[in-house]
Amino acid sequence: MAEREVVETSEAQIAVHWQEEGYYYPSTEFVAQANMTDKGIYERFSLENFPNCFKEYADLLDWYEYWETILDTSDAPCYKWFKGGKINASYNCIDRHLKNNKNKTAIHFVPEPIDAGYEHITYQELYVRVNEFAALLRDFAGLKRGDRVTLHMPMVPELPITMLACARLGVIHSQVFGGFSGTACADRIVDSESNVLITMDAYYRSGSLLDHKQNADVAIEHAAKDGQKVDKVLVWQRYPGKYSAETPMVDGRDYFVNDLLKNYYGARVEPERMNSEDPLFLMYTSGTTGKPKGCQHGTGGYLAYVTGTSKFVQDIHPEDVYWCMADIGWITGHSYIVYGPLANCASTVMYEGVPTYPDAGRSWRIAQDLDVNIFHTAPTRFGPCGKSA
Asked: Are 70 and 51 in contact (CB under 8 A)?
């Protein structure tokens, strides 16, 4: 058999002869089947209405002072959204819901062990716990508006409680994905110049209770080598009153949050009136291709965007039980597990472990148990037959 002739085609030839098809946009009726039930949003948020259209997002929030300018581009690319406005993210995610929804579930927490019961935290309980921890951060840890604090925590309720307590004080939080190593945590401590680390003693992963405290010791050691000293390590206990890690606590540096909180029972902290452009948190890249790069997220613009997209794109409302299967260690988790759903007074689901423990049906049983009606995940989360990809 004669060999087939191979014709070589250059990139230039492809570029000249390739006739690109026009973009096809699905109808609003089709898209609305998945999420955008408000068809008018396409017209309201068209390019010709930019940036004034985002006033609609900001109007979903409560402001101490209204803004002067929707978008200030005078210092591009450092754009400032809702310049002149004053706001607090913790207040918008908790306080303003108490009048009508204090007994509504804010967070459904699902521990990984199958014999553990679900925990349902109401908006009132969230308010109490966030205030008490904010008082601890302020009075014991000495944190104040504009300070940076590093969090290295797993997917447990204490993580959003910590984030919202920081936001209440105007302290800039930097959450490190719980599965990252101590050295990865150290890189972010050094870059953010944090002198307080908040962590947890242990958490569950694939059926095992892992010693997480050991990562804190590694992080502090490596950060010190790079010139950043951590003064205090605040350790949440996975089981309050019981230490679940083998790594010893360091006297004078490490403190159990659960013990300290007893001193702040009933404490209430007035939310800081933050400028719209003040930072809410730092989010770092994974560091896979080089040194992690930090991105600063402003309070007003970020909160308005995640509140608006949660409501208009994902169609999240107070009566919904919403589950985003991301990890809070990443921007999707910050936005669509914590700030977006809570700002909309929805019930958000947090699951501690892997979706295939003890089997591939775990996620669907959780959704059934909690009557989840909005499910947000990546297409690669589940492969064939429901197996985690």
From this structure: yes
Distance of CA 340 to the CA centre of its chain: 9
DSSP 204: E
In a domain, 242, yes or no: yes
pLDDT 10s digit of each residue in the chain, 389 long? 556 666 676 666 666 555 555 666 667 666 555 566 777 888 898 899 999 999 999 999 999 999 999 999 999 888 999 999 999 999 999 999 999 999 999 999 999 999 999 999 999 999 999 999 999 999 999 999 999 999 999 999 999 999 999 999 999 999 999 999 999 999 999 999 999 999 999 999 999 999 999 999 999 999 999 999 999 999 999 999 999 999 999 999 999 999 999 999 999 999 999 999 999 999 999 888 888 899 999 999 999 999 999 999 899 999 999 999 999 999 999 999 999 999 999 999 999 999 999 999 999 999 999 999 999 987 766 554 444 43
> What is d(CA 231, CA 125) in angstroms, rounded to the nearest whole number?
30
Find the radius of gyration of the CA atoms of the chain.
23
Kindly state the tokens that stand for 95. 């306080």
What does pTM read for this prediction?
0.90
Residue reference for tokens 């690109």: 20
Q: How far apart are CA 355 and CA 337, in angstroms?
A: 16
Is residue 325 situated within a structural domain? yes
How many CA atoms, within 13 angstroms, populate the side-chain half-sphere of residue 107?
A: 29
Distance CA 66, CA 53 (A): 16
How many structural domains are present in the chain?
Answer: 1
Q: Contact 274/299 with Cβ under 8 angstroms?
A: yes
CATH label of the domain that carries residue 67: 3.40.50.12780
Give the bridge partners for 281, in sequence order.
173, 297
How many C-beta atoms lie closer than 10 Å to residue 106's C-beta? 25
Is 64 inside any structural domain? yes
Kindly state whether residue 20 falls inside one of the protein's structural domains.
no
- Residues 276 and 87 sit within 8 Å (Cβ to Cβ): yes
Give the Cα separation of 167 and 152 in Å (integer).
17
Q: What is the dihedral of CA 25, 28, 31, 32, to 10 degrees?
A: 180
Give the structural domain span for 230: 52-354
